[in-house]
Amino acid sequence: MSTRHGFLSADFIDHLHSNVPEYAKLTRRQQWALADMLWCSSSKARRHSILEDFQSFHYAELENWFGREGFSRINERLQIFDVTPNWFYEEGATKGYRLRPKFQRILDSYFLDPGSSPSYLVTGNLRAIKKFRAAVASTDMRGSKATEWPCGSFLNCVPVRVDMLESLHAGLSEKFRSSCDQGSGEGSETIRRLLLSAACAIRLSTSLSARPGFMPHLYVEAESGRLYARGLSLQNAPRIVKRAALYGLWDYDFSNCHFTIFAQMSERNGYRTEAIQDYLSRKAEIRQSIAQQASISVEQAKQCLIAVMYGASTTLWYNNAIPREIGQDAAARLFAVPFFKDLVRDIYRGREVILNERPRTANWRLPNAMGKAIKFEKSKPMRAIAHLIQGVEALALKSTLELYNDEIVLLQHDGFAAHSRLDRLKIEQYVENRTGYRLTLDEKRIGFNSSELDVLVEGTHQNQKQEACKT
Fold first, then answer.
1. Where are the domains of the chain?
2. In 252-315, where does DSSP find H-type helix?
3. pLDDT one-digit tens code per residue, 215-247
């Protein structure tokens, strides 16, 4: 939460004033912070990494906004969140925060009806926004001056299809009410999160602060040079909400970006990652094979491969990322798959040669392709690898902007959305010249059909059954 980064609708503040008598007694800063916690409750970025249906807020963040123990006193008085007694030290996760039924009903009553009269957007001082700033904040996440992304103002408002968002919202509302009426609860929390995300996008895209049909975005530069959108945005929105909002535009992403960069980086340092190269050449086939051998879904296989790329342990301790994701029995089957073991061996060996040969600065810091340097810690090799890979990824995206800054409307981590179809070969060649890495762009026209909701809900039911089996 930050006064500089993020937006709320002024009528949401009014809604809280009307429904929470104690709310008006908070300072303006505290009113903003609490409203932002509620507004972003559907955000994937706020979802707790361990506890289902809980949100995550760092204690330092809460102290910054409410003062030391200030949030605890307010929460005790207003009864907003159920909070777990402890944070998860070994997993590096915060305490869990889950809205209590009263506040969930207050939130639902606002977002179930997003068609009220438009209002202005507000920032942390609760003042109406009349003019948007540049798309990228002037300071990065650490408070230093940001200089790597001089994007100006052309990315600060993304064109969206409000009619498609409204169609999605109507379908989600119907399914949410149906699940509540039946009392089954199957998929209701997932539907609620999607519903809140769609409603937020509608509110942001129909405000008085911007032209109708444009959703404001603000990006902040991370220590790797990557750009992260603040608050609720289409960068971090659920896939189905993003597709409805961007219907008809063109979506681009650098294919298998992390594995591709890692393989080339490793080969430059003398080690050819044979298993990774094989995976890159026949990705769908290998995912399917791993899924069958481990008796997991293809999507689970994909997520586990990505997790290993970023340092997930291949031990069966139940709190490790992969056993926690698919269960200990499935994890044991996965870790026994021969190709999976070959891939893990490639990652470990590649990581070793990359970091052994990587040049350091005079004060033993590790610079990446964006010129961003972090302190190198031998005990955290995957943090260093992530820093290097994300630097190349960010430079590839920045290079693409240099070519098509009038066409690109939304930045994502390893891709972007554009008004029209672009010249992929031209981009790939330019990116290789600028970064030294050969990356391939995937492209597709963004489509959306409300009938996909049935598939989504059915998939949610299946996931819930799998979760039940794991326990």
1. 8-248+450-470, 254-443
2. 257-268, 274-281, 283-294, 298-309
3. 999 898 999 999 988 878 899 888 899 999 999
